[in-house]
Design a protein that fits this description.
The chain has helices at residues 27-30, 49-58, 65-77, 84-104. By secondary structure, it is an all-alpha fold. The longest helix has 21 residues, at 84-104.
C-alpha cells in the first residue's frame, strides 16, 4: 500500500521537541455543542527526525528485493551455504579499519 510522496517537515531542533501549535477549543466546542467540528479539506503530517531518517532509508536504491527473496528461498530450501572464510576476512578488515580510525583520532 502506498500513501504517496512523504514530505519531511520535521523541525531541525532536538528530537522530542514539542510542537508550537496547540489545539484550542472553539467557543461552540467549549459550550458542548452537539455538532462535531467541521473536517478540514487537507491535513499536514509532520515526521519526527527519526522517522525522516527511516523514510529516507526505505527509499535506498541499493536494496534489492529480488536478492532478498532469493536468499530467503535458499534458506527455506536448505540450500544456503555460509562462506566462513569470507566472513572472517570481512571481520578482520572491519576491525583493522576501526583500529586505524581509533589510532588516528588521538
Amino acid at each position: 500500500m502506498s500513501i504517496g510522496q512523504i514530505r519531511n517537515t520535521a523541525p531541525t531542533g532536538a528530537v522530542g521537541a514539542t510542537n508550537d501549535r496547540k489545539t484550542q477549543a472553539s467557543p461552540k466546542q467549549a459550550t458542548g455543542s452537539a455538532q462535531p467540528p467541521a473536517a478540514e479539506e487537507s491535513a499536514t503530517v509532520e515526521l519526527s527526525p527519526a522517522a525522516s531518517v527511516l523514510s529516507e532509508a526505505s527509499q535506498d536504491p541499493s536494496f534489492d528485493q529480488a536478492k532478498v527473496d532469493a536468499l530467503a528461498q535458499a534458506i527455506r530450501d536448505g540450500k544456503f551455504t555460509v562462506d566462513h572464510g569470507a566472513i572472517a576476512d570481512k571481520l578482520i578488515g572491519n576491525a583493522a579499519e576501526l583500529l586505524g580510525r581509533a589510532g588516528s583520532s588521538h
